[in-house]
Amino acid sequence: MQIPTENILGYSVTSQLPDQCVDLINKWLDAGEKGKVFVCANPHSLVEANNDPLFQQAIHNADLVTPDGVGIIIASKVLGGTIRERVTGSDIFWGLSAHLNKRGGKSYFFLGSSEETLAAIKEKMAVEYPDIRFAGSYSPPYKPEFSAEESRKMVEAVNAARPDVLWVGMTAPKQEKWIDQHWDRLDVKFIGAVGAVFDFYVGNVKRSHPVFQRMGLEWLPRLLQEPQRLFKRNFISSPLFLWRVFLQKLGQQR
Predict the structure, then answer these.
(1) What is the CA radius of gyration of the chain?
(2) In this structure, are 198 and 246 located in the same domain?
(3) How far apart are CA 14 and CA 183, in angstroms?
(4) Fewer CB near the terminus (10 Å): N or C of the chain?
């Protein structure tokens, strides 16, 4: 199944809209193929991947890479592409959940975050998406890297539950690298790296107002809330990303 993509700094980023991405994932689930992987691409992640070979490999190996960030939209315009709308982890999670809840018969497993957050997700899922089975959850140790034994336990927990969909909510690039290193051992049809979506879903972290989202300024309120964590992303990675995009454009013109 050919997915329309554009070359953004050497990465194949889909030009599909959110609903089209959800439709694609549904087709994967219906086909019963194993281990399809979804990740988001934003300016910060693509800049970070430039210095992290395992992260770079994880993005290249993903089956669906979506444009999560207004910087990706700007890059597409500069490079003559057609990407005009962001596709975030939240878009995929909420969109797929709404669809699967109508159909019924599918199941979720949540890997990442704290026991408290996972319990809150289970409770909220039962109310909002009662026709999606909550197959299970697992809270891994909070550390930069997992040992082989810790990863083995995580894989075993997922496989014992036999879910259709595995949502991985850790920080990037840890989640993408872990998925890439273990996807072939996971007995699931679809794996989504969705970062902060776990916290967004239960209200631990508030998404920016829809007005900011539509304006491409979702990052601004979050920057004000978490300036230390997000300063590098917005004021170092983003300008560097755009500089590399302009170099790519110059390379196309030669």
Answers:
(1) 18
(2) no
(3) 21
(4) C
Whole-model pTM: value is 0.90
Taking only the tens place, the pLDDT of each residue in 54-107 is: 999 999 999 999 999 899 999 999 999 999 999 999 999 999 999 999 999 999
DSSP 12-44: EEE---HHHHHHHHHHHHHHT-S-EEEEEE-HH
Is residue 180 located within the same domain as residue 143?
A: yes
Distance CA 167, CA 91 (A): 13
| Domain span holding position 41 | 5-202
Mean pLDDT confidence for 44-51: 95
Cα gap 61→82, rounded to integer Å: 23
Lowest mean pLDDT: which of 11-15, 156-160, 206-210? 206-210
Task: Provide the CB-side half-sphere exposure for 29 (13 A, CA).
Answer: 24
Specify the residue for token string 């967004």. Answer: 200
